[in-house]
């Protein structure tokens, strides 16, 4: 509270909790139990409730209103450090962007359907900066989260450019990101996913069904081993396979549409042969 709740995770519920405690007139005592102590039934119950909550599709509507007399605003000058002072700007009201919010919801829904987990938006933003991703993939994911690529509906309201929003390969289909990555008939797309699937099936029994939500959220892929513990190696393999495949499909699309505009379809098909060593590329990255 002295630091103005800057860089505090779950700031809103923590502020409401602090206000609740300040409203009490009696002394409040806390007892800290270690997770390994004999009397840890309460800790286990809390962990179980938290785990169940993270898997629910919707959250409860919890009142977080704070009475004005109990809400302290700003940070104490004596508590400021060089690390948190620049973060004061964070507290400005962020302007919501519907396209970004829709995409984040798509990713949350995709992750929930595939892995039975519902990550908060902050976790999704963190996942696209994973160290396993190249800078190029991070940039692609960031733009995708903001739906900021100049494709599909972007061209709809620009005079004389409306046809640029339609896929060159699939008559009448709007060329949005989901279409490009998952349903387009452009040569190369199906082959790339097939190779990625074959590589994955060499070490795993099943290949998760792909959706725009779970491929953009591949940084949050969650797999468990036979012992029920997280299988980190598999998660890394999947993260790299999906992100590299996704970016390769995007590159092929951009080469066709921007780099090689006007090229006959027969020649465009032959150019995809240049991407054939995908298995080699992915294998060298993953293993
Ligand atoms: Zn298409």
UniProtKB/TrEMBL annotation:
Name of protein: Reverse transcriptase zinc-binding domain-containing protein
């Amino acid at each position: 509270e002295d630091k103005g709740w800057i860089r505090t995770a779950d700031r809103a519920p923590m502020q409401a909790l602090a206000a609740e405690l300040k409203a009490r007139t009696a002394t409040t005592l806390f007892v800290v139990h270690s997770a390994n102590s004999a009397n840890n039934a309460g800790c286990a119950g809390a962990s179980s409730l938290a785990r169940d909550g993270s898997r629910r599709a919707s959250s409860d509507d919890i009142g977080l209103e704070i009475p004005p007399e109990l809400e302290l605003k700003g940070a104490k000058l004596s508590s400021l450090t060089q690390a948190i002072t620049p973060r004061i700007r964070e507290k400005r009201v962020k302007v919501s962007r519907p396209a970004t919010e829709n995409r984040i919801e798509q990713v949350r829904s995709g992750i929930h359907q595939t892995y039975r987990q519902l990550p908060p938006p902050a976790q999704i933003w963190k996942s696209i900066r994973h160290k396993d991703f190249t800078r190029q993939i991070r940039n692609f994911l960031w733009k995708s989260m903001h739906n900021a690529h100049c494709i599909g509906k972007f061209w709809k309201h620009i005079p004389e450019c409306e046809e640029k929003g339609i896929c060159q390969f699939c008559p009448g289909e709007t060329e949005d990101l989901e279409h490009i990555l998952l349903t387009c008939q452009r040569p190369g797309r199906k082959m790339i996913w097939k190779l990625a699937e074959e590589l994955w099936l060499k070490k795993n029994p099943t290949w998760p069904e792909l959706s725009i939500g779970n491929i953009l959220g591949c940084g949050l892929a969650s797999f468990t081993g036979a012992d029920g513990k997280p299988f980190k190696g598999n998660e890394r393999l999947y993260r790299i396979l999906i992100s590299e495949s996704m970016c390769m499909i995007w590159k092929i699309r951009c080469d066709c549409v921007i780099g090689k505009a006007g090229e006959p379809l027969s020649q465009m098909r032959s150019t995809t042969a240049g991407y054939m060593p995908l298995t080699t590329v992915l294998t060298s990255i993953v293993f």
